[in-house]
Each structure stands twice: as C-alpha cells, then as structure tokens.
Give the backbone structure.
Amino acid sequence: MIKPFECSISKAALDDLKTRLINTRWTYQIGPDGVQVPVLRI
Amino acid sequence: MDLSNRTGWSTGSSLAYMKELAAYWTDEFDWQKVEDQINFYPNFLTEIDGKQIHFIHVKGKGRKSIPLLITHGWPGSFLEMLKIIPLLTDHQDFSFDVIIPSLPGFGFSEKVTATGCNSRYVASLWYQLMQQLGYKQVGLQGGDIGAGVSTAFALQYPEATLGLMLNYIPGSYQPFLKEGEVFTAEELTYKKYIADWFAKEGAYAHLHSTKPLTLVYGLNDSPVGLCAWMLEKFYAWSDCNGNLDSIFTKDELLGNITLYWFTETIHSSVYIYYENSKSPLVFGKEDFVKCPVGIVKFPKEISFPPRIYVERGYNVTYWNEHQQGGHFAALEQPELLSKDIIRFFKQINV
C-alpha cells in the first residue's frame, strides 16, 4: 500500500552527529605553519 | 613519508578539504534545510515484494505527460535528482510524471542485504512500483547503478519500456559478439583503458564487491570516515577541475552524506556491488535493448565506451556529447540533462 512519507530526523540523531564530529580523531593535524604533523597521543 | 601531499587528493580525500568540510558540517550545516527540500516534494513509502521502498512521485503539468522513472547510484541518492524535477515536470506542453525511487538499502528504502538484491532484482521491484502507480509503461533514466537497473528493466520488461535514456553505461556491461565478430581497435583500446582504470581507481569497487562488511564498521561509526570515503568520488568523478566548491555547494555534498549517516545505509548501499558482481550485465545471444535508447555523454564521466560498443547491445537512436559535466549529471548539469531527456522522449514520439 502506498502511503505518504515525510522526512523528520530526531534531535537526538542531530546531536549525536555533532558530538561525533567534534570528537573526530584526526590522523594528521595541520600546524600553524601549514605543515601537517601526525597526531601523537602518549 | 611525504606529508605534503595530504593537502591534495592524489592519495585520497584531501586532509585540508576534509577539515574545512568537517568544520562546516559541525558549525554551519543545517539539516533542516535538506529536510525542507525533501518534503517540498510528495514522498511516499510502499511495500514491494515484502520490502519498504521510498520514492518521490511528481505529476507533470504538461498537456501531455509521460511517466519517467529515474534511478540514482552510489555514492549518490534520490537527493541528486531534486534539481531536475521542476525542469521535467513544469513544461506546459510536454512534461514527465517523475518517479524517483531510492534503491533498496539507500536512503529511506529498506535495507536489504539478502542474497540476490542486484540490479536485475531491483528492476523487478521497479516494474511492480510502476504497476502500483497505475502505469503500463514508463520511460527510464539512470546513471551509475541506475544505468544498470534501467538497462535490466528494459531487457526484462520491453513491453513496459517507452524508452531508455542513459548518462552512463553500466560498468559490467559486455555486449554479445556473434560468431566471427571481433571488437574494433577502438573498442579494444577502451577495454584496455578500463582495465588500467580499475587497477588505479577501482579499489573502492573491488572492496565493495568482495568484503563490504569489513569496510563499513568504521564508516558507520565515524561521520568523517564516511564523508571521506564518499567525497573522494565526488571529487574524482565530477567536472570540478580540482575544486569541489566550483560545482557543488557544501550543503549539497553534506546533504547527501548526512542522509547516508542518519539512515545508516553505508553497508546496505555498497552491498549491491557485492550482489552485482555475481550477476554482471554480460549480454547473452538473446540480450539486446530493443526500445529506443538515448545516450548522453558528459566529458568527465568515469569512463564511456565508444558508440559502436554501446550499439552492439542497445538500440541507440539518440547520442549527444557535452563539453562540460561529469558523473553526477543531474546534480552537476541539470539543465543540460533535462534538455536531453526532453529531446529524446519527444523524438521517439511516445
């Protein structure tokens, strides 16, 4: 049966995306001099 | 290791651009605007063969309006087609009733990772969708995976096909050679080019076709990882001349990627490569697309066979080549593509 559909993404999903973007573990960082350096977590 | 090339794209999605885009995604991107664009058009869900299928259906305003079923590919989605809708539906004399489904496993269509969900099977779903909507025949349009699905539809349901308009020739397509026939030098050069292209650029497709599950744990868990995997193709396959922002807005790129993110469809979307690899469009003796076929070629398309190679398997009645545009024709060059679609279907006088 064909039924109408409306797209509606929840606020929780939007918030989760933003949190994950903020917490991205970048493999390389770009320093102030424009040179890229590997991220070292010790 | 030379780190300097990470600002460029030669080894994959540019770090500099990814950081710029991720910052925009975090701070400026507004999903609500994408939702508004989606909901501006009539969207529907239906059940076909036990699977939920999403589609947009916009009736044409013309005195004569014919149904046109447009199928997207990967890494695109139905969103690619939004710009082309008014260009096809608004003409007062001749228009289209546009049907834009989401492939199974893409967007709001149900995730299907069962054996056999390949382009031929999707064509059978589209045939049932056509019937549900009350149409006896449809015109078909597609690129990328959509070209394969549309071709399969035309082969399987010739009586239901008004015409077929492609802006891409399915990657697995191989025409049937009759006894004594051989490929021309031009065709052999093309085949060599394709083999070289797959060696240099086809890793993604090989991975999708062989070990899709391993790939997607990371992509479904990291928005930036997902974005990088998909974005590289928009860069490489579009006519962006090294500058993505020259051809797509960040909102267009991120709208599509965010759709994949929210619906968690990266696994189910790439899975069709796995299924299609087991059922390539290798034409047999009886396989020939008999309906009128229109071909539109954009210069930055991934690859395009010579006309003779296409004509071995398709009844080509229309062929047009443009000076600009790439793989994502409906998104990159909606005006050009829509004019070709209108011209072709007018020409075949459906």
Remarks:
- The longest helix of chain B spans residues 185-201.
- The longest strand of chain B covers residues 289-297.
- The mean pLDDT of chain B is 96.
